Amino acid sequence: xxxxxxxxxxxxxxxVVSAIIVMAWLTPVQRIAGVHIVSEAxxxxxxxxNNSEMESVKVHGIFWNEGDxxxxxxxxxVIFTDPAHDKVVRKNVPVGxxxxxxxxxxxxxxxxxxxxxxxxxxVVNVTVKFDWKENGEFKTSETSLSSVKTVRPADTFCTEVxxxxxxxxxxxxxxxxAGIYTVNVNGLNGTFELVTDNSIQx
Length: 202
Prior knowledge:
By secondary structure, this protein is mainly beta. It has two domains: 37-151, Immunoglobulin-like (Sandwich), CATH 2.60.40; 173-202, no CATH class. Helices cover 12% and strands 49% of the residues. The protein is built from one helix and ten strands. The strands form three sheets. Strands 4-3-6-7-8 form a five-stranded antiparallel sheet, with no helix packed on it. Strand 7 and strand 8 (149-151) form a beta hairpin.
């Protein structure tokens, strides 16, 4: 009796595995129609190296094409909008021409904007803009890294894709006395400790 039960279980298990394999083979792979450029980026803002009067805003990111069409003649630009200094600075990202479809390649980029330090500290808005040719038409996509908002042309299809995002903002602690400090960002609290006074002794 036990042998019959084992044989039945083995048969049912093989049947289930076979059904899963057949279903996976018959189910079409979900693809996003057209070009769909996705990017992940982080921003850091703090004092420039070896120059306390200047501030550096750095962007490091990666982007790829999740769509089913190659993004032809792709160009990418990082746009730094600095309201405190009334400046808009555009930095080209070296791209290699075309961006393969279906996550066929990933491209990394780094960009930096140097500006005079502001007191109190002010934010620089960063946008990454992509332009490409798709089916003979020019298309544009912009991602605002400061507000994590994506702007796409009105006639394009938009899918719900969760894009991880991280923003690193350096705290201006110059001149603070030694002690434990609390930082509140949108209702989330964190603490840090300065072991010594953070000022240059003259």
